[in-house]
């Protein structure tokens, strides 16, 4: 019994499909205790039947649902050691094609949903002076893409929140990691909604990107099972990374972006420095 009580407890959001399901399943296979969450527990019944699993209903858009799920998890297992903020939605449209209502929904799930979970788990982690917060963003949280403007904006926002949070909680023994996957063979692209009022001027940019996303379903290079194993290796490493790119495309695109920005910063260095007050002699 004592060894079981020492086994780390993970809470994973959005376990009904995709990354969340793969992560939760792999953790259970490896002997971890896992709080398996979805908006309806009937969608994760097979995972919840595992001896080390505790299935809880959790809607990241509902603050009371988040608070209740975290409280029930802490009561059941005694603590939460690692939280994986995976729940999220996609939407394909040019910026101009996206309605304010859609923008609000994207931010409510993808950004505010992460923040709600973070707020709920931090008191327990601070009390224990330990824990890990893992926020799944996207390659689109580092590099913008046509037809994904507001989706990318939510993921950039989570990156910024995570960066600031890291500075605040790492002195308290709490680690923060962002995970940036490229295209993986999940149902994300097929389940994402898209604009019903396309603008012809964007057909060769956002429109072409939408069609490419749809055509890629079932052919993406990324393997969710391998991603789950990679995430576990990173979280349990002696020195976990602050950022974990997943997939060859994520690595190639992200590093190319870094090189391009460094080149541009260098090219405009003199103009950049000229904006300060002159240094006194």
* CATH secondary-structure class: Alpha Beta
CATH architecture: 3-Layer(aba) Sandwich
The strand order across the widest sheet is 3-2-1-4-6-7-9
Helix-strand string: HEHEHEHEEHHEHEHEHHEHH
Number of strands: 9
The main sheet comes to: 7 strands, parallel
What does the average pLDDT come to? Answer: 94
Radius of gyration computed on alpha carbons: 20 Å
Cα-to-Cα separation, first versus last residue: 70 Å
Which term fits the overall shape? globular
Assign the CATH superfamily: NAD(P)-binding Rossmann-like Domain
Q: Approximately how much helix is present in the residues?
A: 40-55%
Keywords: Oxidoreductase
GO molecular function, one term: oxidoreductase activity
Protein name: NAD(P)-dependent dehydrogenase (Short-subunit alcohol dehydrogenase family)
Family: Belongs to the short-chain dehydrogenases/reductases (SDR) family.
Characterization of this structure:
By secondary structure, the chain is of the alpha/beta class. It has one domain: NAD(P)-binding Rossmann-like Domain (Rossmann fold, 3-Layer(aba) Sandwich), CATH 3.40.50.720. It contains twelve helices and nine strands. The chain has helices at 2-6, 18-29, 45-48, 63-77, 100-110, 112-128, 149-169, 188-191, 203-216, 224-235, 248-267, 269-273; strands at 9-12, 33-38, 53-57, 82-85, 91-92, 131-136, 174-181, 193-194, 243-246. A seven-stranded parallel beta sheet has the order 3-2-1-4-6-7-9, sandwiched between helices. Helix 3 links the parallel strand 2 (33-38) and strand 3. Helix 2 crosses helix 10. 40% of the residues are buried. The model has no long low-confidence stretch (mean pLDDT 94). This is NAD(P)-dependent dehydrogenase (Short-subunit alcohol dehydrogenase family). GO terms for molecular function: oxidoreductase activity. Keywords: Oxidoreductase.
